[in-house]
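<given_protein>
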Amino acid sequence: MTVPVDPPPHSESQATPPLPSSLPTTPGADTDPQSKSNAPPVDENSAWGFQFGSPTFTDLMNGLDSPARALARQLSTDLKHLDQVRSAVRWRGHAWKWTLTFHHPDVPKASAADFAYLIPDPRGLRFALPLTDEMVEDILNTNDELARSDYIVEGINDAPNPYQWHWPIWKIESREHVDTLLALAAAKLACMTNGTGDHNSVDPNTVA
């Protein structure tokens, strides 16, 4: 059983920053719904909201409405078809709560960032994909389809950018969104494979 702990704080021994404390503002994602005065409250006893539970993937999917559930299952399945990508349900703090976290063996266990995150918020399904500055430059300069996607580009441009990392997060509302995010995840994996902007690329001692 996964022990529910918050993400580790950034330290000089880590090569990547901690999770943002709230969901970033992007045209594709909106702001953290918990910060909206008109947003419905989180059910702290739900599978997604109860920190000290041990929900399964199915438990989290059951908390979504039918369209969001289908999109979440599709993206999860597609991501696990990428080479060596695996997933686990983990508690990722009070903003993201129980999240389907995707890991790749090229991401060191000491890293504060995993490969990707699928956030099954019943109020809106979301997906986060941490990207280094080098990854962003490489992807947008070499992938015309992604570079022309306002959904992708505006999400990246408006995301928090601590320690030379981008933390974009997108709201998922259609199969087109799923396909576009899968293409971005595949492009990130290609960057990691060819050594462009890997998860150890940031030296915290150089950050002002």
Observations:
- The longest strand covers residues 86-91.
- Residues 126 and 171 are 5 Å apart (CA to CA).
